[in-house]
Write a structure and sequence with these properties.
The structure holds two protein chains of two kinds.
Chain A lengths: L1 E6 L2 H9 L8 E4 L6 E4 L1 H5 L13 H6 L1 E4 L2 H15 L6 E5 L2 E5 L8 H16 L3 E6 L2 H13 L6 E3 L5 H8 L11 H9 L5 H6 L2 H7 L2 H10 L17 E11 L2 H21 L2 E12 L10 E12 L2 H15 L6 E9 L2 E2 L11 H23 L35 E4 L3
Parallel strand pairs in A: 2-4, 7-8
Antiparallel strand pairs in A: 1-6, 1-7, 2-3, 5-6, 9-12, 10-11, 10-12, 10-13
Helix pairs in contact in A: 4-5, 10-11, 12-13
Chain B lengths: L1 H24 L15 E3 L18 E3 L1 H5 L6 E7 L13 E5 L9 E6 L2 E10 L2 E5 L8 E2 L5 E11 L8
Antiparallel strand pairs in B: 1-2, 3-4, 4-9, 5-6, 5-9, 6-7, 7-8
Classes of the chains: A alpha+beta, B alpha+beta.
InterPro entries (chain A): DNA/RNA_pol_sf, DNA_pol_Y-fam_little_finger, DNA_polymerase-Y, DUF4113, Rev_trsase/Diguanyl_cyclase, UmuC
GO cellular component, one term (chain A): cytosol
Keywords (chain A): DNA damage, DNA repair, SOS mutagenesis, SOS response
Chain lengths: ~425, ~170
């Protein structure tokens, strides 16, 4: 069995931990340079504010009653790390999938104890970090994702929902789930499936896997197996490319060498940048994670992740790489043999919907146009002359790193000068 | 209510005693993961004595690390800054750094960070007459009954770091 654990309105929850007055209020978190809404509390959703809504277009009534904050990636990254640390107390097999989502593998644990264990996990994360999470427990990642959604949607589950491979309950859930709600099924595939009479997840599960493979792809066939309760997909296939991009790979052998990690990180960044530009998105922050092999008994264990925000939404590999290097430098420790290193691009926005900042100058425009031409040339070279024809070196350490964020809350957990203040008298 | 006040004060004294016994009972629950900036100091083989050093001291037995000593559960431990001087009796000065462990039970006698109507506050928890109160260590502040108040305990304060002259950052 595997569990998907994810934080409810994660960025907003992080803010609420350190400012209890935000509890119960409509709260939104804005993208870099305060352009548009990237996270909403459910009170803000109830006011009709859409994901990605530009700040300056929000109705005055909403702006009056809602608290809108600049994104505080230092805080979110640290809280994400803490949540994963707590998850690590419950299973050695923790795989961060995003800044606010992780898979926790429970193979080898007694079946009957898993649900209480997940409840304890949820309570512990809540107590130790203050972040409310939902837990979906199922035999496969695809089903775990569905169970997780139910856990959050239906209050009766109290945050933990188990979905087995067989049974009437599973059938009802799958029948109520349109195929394009499934993880990794693109809208176009969903339309084609619908033409063949497959509209919901149950119908897809009942389809003949060989037929699905011949008509669609091996990825879609794996989806059928996943829905039947047989694990078939690996984490990297499960990207939700409109929201985030993950590139990670295990090393062929364990390595403790810093330069090998840096080389892997450079490659991941280049790959992620290519994907990002191909789909016409910009990233707002970069997360890097590293870990040792948790299954090697007797090895010193270490896992960590860090998030660095980009100065402005960007698809320039050089900027992604500069951010990723800073993140890696912050978490790399000597004396461990690393098994895996990954790069995740966070909070993607469409190029066309990019919000021009009030502070932008014509020079910024020119620089952006030049960066676009450079990246286009780079992608063409690598496409036509073969992968890695043009690669990146490491960026200089001393490049300036300034973020404009007027409404950012203090970096409560990562800066001595910005710790939470508590009053002794009242 | 002088009798209640007296009772609370007694409770407070008991609390101080509990705090002392708590700190001596503290056990290491997990290994703290050192951050990048954590430094450690060598631990000498024996206590400092006047006179000639023991030749055994050439051998360093272990490394001590203040962060690991103070932070038992890294995932649940947060540093916060105290404001005001109504907890002076507990050794908490204005501007002191507090180590807060969210994984600990808020038992009576412990000093807690508690969100009182949305405001993070440091007080000692005390039980008196079946009710839970928040007490300051300065008798000028009346104890606050928790019953009927919107509040939730944020975490338990485990250590105070107070800088003396010359030690400020």
């Amino acid at each position: 069995m595997i569990a998907l654990v994810d934080g409810n309105s994660f960025y907003v929850s992080c803010e609420r931990v350190f400012d209890p007055r935000l509890e119960g209020r409509a709260v939104g978190v804005l993208s870099n340079n305060d352009g548009c809404v990237v996270a909403r509390s459910h009170e803000l959703k109830a006011l009709g504010v859409a994901m990605g809504a530009p700040l300056h277009l929000l109705p005055p009534a909403v702006r009056r009653q809602a608290v809108m904050l600049s994104s505080n990636y230092a805080l979110y990254g640290d809280m994400s790390r803490r949540v994963n640390q707590v998850l690590g107390e419950f299973s050695p097999d923790v795989e961060p999938y995003s800044i606010d989502e992780s898979f926790v593998g429970f193979s080898g644990f007694p079946e009957g104890e898993l649900e209480p264990r997940c409840r304890e996990l949820r309570d512990t994360v809540g107590r130790w970090t203050g972040i409310p999470v939902g837990v979906g427990l199922a035999p496969t990642r695809t089903l775990a994702k569905l169970a997780n959604r139910l856990a959050k949607r239906e209050p009766a589950f109290e945050g933990v929902c188990r979905l087995d491979a067989e049974g009437e309950a599973t059938r009802r859930v799958l029948e109520a789930c349109p195929v394009d709600d499934l993880w990794g099924v693109a809208r176009r595939s969903a339309e084609r499936l619908a033409l063949m009479g497959i509209e919901n997840a149950w119908q897809l599960r009942e389809a003949d896997p060989r037929w699905v493979r011949s008509r669609f792809s091996v990825v879609m066939e794996r989806m059928v197996w996943e829905l039947r309760g047989r694990p078939a997909i690996v984490l990297d296939d499960m990207s939700e490319p409109r929201r985030r991009l993950l590139v990670s790979r295990s090393f062929g052998r364990l390595t403790g060498e810093r330069h090998e990690l840096e080389a892997a990180m450079r490659q991941h960044c280049a790959r992620a940048g290519e994907k990002l530009r191909r789909q016409g998105s910009l990233a707002q922050a970069v997360q890097v994670f590293v870990r040792t092999n948790p299954f090697l008994a007797g090895e010193p264990q270490y896992r960590n992740a860090a998030v660095v925000a980009l100065p402005a939404p960007s698809a320039d590999s050089r900027e992604l790489l500069a951010a990723a290097s800073r993140a890696l430098a912050a978490i790399y420790l000597e004396g461990y043999r690393y098994q895996k290193c990954g790069v995740m691009l966070l909070d993607l926005v469409d190029v066309e919907r990019r919000q021009a900042s009030l502070l932008e100058t014509p020079e910024d425009d020119a620089r952006r146009a030049r960066s676009q031409r450079l990246m286009a040339a780079l992608d063409r070279l690598n496409r036509e002359m073969g992968r890695d024809t043009v690669r990146f070196g490491l960026p200089r350490r001393d490049n300036a790193w300034k973020l404009r964020c007027e409404r950012r809350t203090p970096r409560y957990t990562t800066s001595w000068d910005e710790l939470m203040r508590v009053k002794t008298g009242r | 209510m002088p009798s209640t006040r007296y009772c609370i004060y007694l409770q407070y004294l008991v609390g101080v005693a509990m705090k002392l016994s708590d700190s001596t009972r503290a056990r290491v629950i997990g290994r703290a993961e050192p951050g990048t900036a954590v430094s450690s100091l060598p631990l000498m083989g024996c206590r400092v004595r006047a006179g000639f050093p023991s030749p055994a001291d050439d051998h360093l037995e272990a490394e001590i690390n203040l962060h690991e000593h103070v932070v038992k559960r890294p995932a649940a431990t947060y540093f916060v800054r105290a404001e005001g001087d109504s907890m002076l009796g507990d050794g908490i000065h204005d501007g002191d750094l507090l180590v807060v462990d969210r994984s600990l039970e808020p038992l009576p006698g412990r000093v807690v960070v508690i969100a009182l109507e949305g405001e993070p506050t440091v007080k000692r928890l005390a039980r008196c007459g079946g009710e839970v109160w928040l007490v300051a260590s300065n008798p000028r502040f009346a104890p606050i009954p928790l019953a009927g108040r919107e509040c939730h305990v944020w975490g338990v304060v485990t250590h105070v770091l107070h800088a003396l002259p010359g030690g400020e950052r």
